[in-house]
Design goal:
Length: 330
């Protein structure tokens, strides 16, 4: 099945490139409200489903045991820039849980934020695991391991109790048996399971609505959305689509993943969304997600106006002159 075009890239009035992909929108009861392309073939969701990976931390009571704040929960679901506040919050979580930075197994990379990167270089510093865009998620996993009495060493392994608990929660909320699904290793070293877009959208629909969830899981989902709304900066950072859109439209929940995956939830309407751009381009998945959100008849005029601005991204010359755009064509 050839997926349709989700976004176009123009230069002047000419379409220079196109991005193919698929999306699925589910409403109450798991009803498909809209879809394009192949929503049944499994794809790796990557970081787009961090909201599900944090469920064991919340449901076990570990987050409350260590006094984690909504700011810290927001960092758990983030793919952050490595800015000073992101590092500060990650270190706060480690300290509260009584684990060390040396216990991280996510690997290090330079901050995505240029000012933060330049500041570190100027000071002669090198990046550490805490600068990894997934360090909040890993801090949460280390805390869950510590609280549950599991060995923190090797917590990223697929057979470790942490990842087994994550797989169980993900499978349940997405209504899929992950034991029968292909899996690989994500960029931050934890397992990632291949899941069809429809199941991913189902998971986010249930995150949004609390539909058919236990009271404990429903409360955890509500806390995740509340944390992201209160601290959108923690979910991504400066000049990042997730943060900027959730600041502009707080009733929308969106989360990016690598390789052109994007997921979202609209809590007040009980809607879940999953998008995948075939070529892995985040510029296309971002504009496509904005267009899907905009197409939903669940927003105020002010929210619609704000969403409209995210359905295109200007392309500029080196002198700052607009010469084209990335635009959604959904």
């Amino acid at each position: 099945m050839t997926n349709p075009v989700l976004a176009q890239v123009t230069r002047g009035q000419t379409v220079e490139s196109v991005h193919l992909g698929a999306f699925c929108v589910l409403g109450p009861g798991g009803k498909v409200l809209a879809s394009l392309g192949d929503i049944q073939s499994p794809i790796f969701p990557r970081s787009a489903i961090k909201a599900f990976q944090v469920l064991p931390l919340l449901e076990s009571g570990a987050a409350d045991r260590y006094g984690f704040t909504d700011e810290e929960i927001a960092l758990c679901i983030s793919s952050h820039n490595g800015e000073p506040d992101h590092v500060r919050v990650a270190r706060s979580m480690l300290a509260k849980a009584g684990v060390r930075e040396a216990d991280y197994e996510c690997g290090s990379h330079w901050p995505y934020d240029m000012p933060a990167l330049h500041d570190m270089i100027t000071k002669g510093e090198t990046p550490h695991d805490v600068h990894n865009n997934c360090s909040g998620k890993h801090a949460g996993m280390l805390a869950f391991a510590k609280a549950s009495g599991a060995d923190v060493k090797g917590y990223v392994g697929i057979d470790h109790p942490v990842q087994q608990a994550v797989a169980k929660a993900m499978g349940e909320i997405c209504e899929i048996d992950l034991k029968s699904q292909a899996w690989g290793i994500d960029g931050c070293s934890v397992p990632t399971w291949a899941i069809p877009l429809q199941n991913m959208a189902r998971g986010f629909q249930r995150l949004a609505s609390g539909e058919n969830l236990s009271d404990t899981r429903k409360a955890a989902c509500q806390r995740i959305i509340r944390a992201a709304r209160a601290h959108p900066f923690m979910v991504a950072g400066t000049q990042r689509f997730c943060t900027d859109l959730m600041k502009a439209v707080p009733r929308a929940f969106v989360k990016t993943g690598a390789e052109g995956v994007f997921c979202g939830a609209v809590a007040h309407a009980g809607i879940g969304i999953a998008v995948k751009c075939d070529d892995g381009a985040h510029r296309a998945s971002e504009t496509a997600m904005a267009a899907v959100l905009l197409a939903l008849d669940v927003w105020t005029p002010e929210e619609r106006a704000a969403l409209q601005g995210f359905t295109r991204q200007p392309i500029t010359s080196r002198k700052g002159v607009e010469v084209g755009e990335v635009r959604a064509v959904i």
